[in-house]
Amino acid sequence: MNISAVAVKIVKLILFAWLLFVVSTARIAARNNLQWSQHFEVTTKPVDSITLVIAHPDDEVMFFSPTLLQLDDLLPQSVRFNLVCLSRGDADSMGSIRELELQKSARLLMGRSGRDFEVFQHDFPDGFDETWDVRSVASSIEDSVFIGDDAVRTVLVTFDEHGVSGHPNHVACHDAVKHIVKQRSDVRALFLKSHHGNILLKYCGFAYDLLKLYFETFLERPDSGLSFVNTFPQYLLAFASMANAHKSQLVWYRYGWWYLSRFVFVNDLEVFVQ
Question: What is the enzyme's main class (predicted)?
């Protein structure tokens, strides 16, 4: 076997895939609109705000940029965006730096549209060994979102019951949001599917969804679940936000994440209502 020839073919295939991703921008945007109208918009009441609940600074861009950027495009400007970060990411004693990085990242991600948004920073202890009390977390989220107005109709966006890589801080976000939704009739949630146990899907980049995009079009079989896909310009915006804002976290292996992780390209979401 000629290893050089095989390597050249692989490089050509990768370049072709990226080129196809770039030229599919309009098709991806149309699919995002269709997904929203089919799976969420027509079945729910109007919303006053979208609230992303994360465990650590950089979660917003490492995991949720497809959802944030699509909702920013799809929702009216009157809908306010909130970002609730429950820890300062202080496991390595860099909490004060990471808190400022989160503020900058949010401005880069959300500032392009002129939409009102606010970042709420809390100080739960960061770490795999830290257990957060669900009711305390839920109370902190409610204090941030409702601010004395219990009539606010909001959609809470956070992790599913497994979190990404099973991180207990992610799981606590899910449990707290689920608790809130069960208590409030005007609150709904979108849970980011972690695809727990499916390593291939987690680390296939955009490949699976690009194939699915054209497969669905050819057979006219739209996918049954709600998912948002970053277009190439949106992917570049998300990566630029990470590179320019979260500099303390941009160690060498993060570049691999931005190339291989499906979360930076695609978010599959579960709609949860009481």
Answer: hydrolase
Helix (H, G, I), strand (E, B) or coil at 52: strand
Pairing of strands 226-229, 80-85: unpaired
Tokens 């004060």 sit at which residue? 96
Closest CA to 166 of 125, 143, 135, 194: 194
Q: E strands along 101-257, which residues? A: 117-121, 154-159, 187-192, 226-229
CB 61 within 8 A of CB 99: no
DSSP letters of 138-172? HHHHHHHHTTT-TT--EEEEEE-TT-GGG-HHHHH
Binning pLDDT at 50, 70 and 90, where does residue 112 land?
confident
Structure tokens at 102: 């989160």
CB 269 within 8 A of CB 227: yes
Rounded Cα–Cα distance for residues 128 and 130 (Å): 6
**d(Cα 160, Cα 267) in Å, to the nearest integer?**
12
pLDDT value, residue 185: 82
pLDDT in tens, 197-238: 899 999 999 999 999 998 876 655 555 679 999 999 999 999
pTM for the predicted model, two decimal places? 0.93
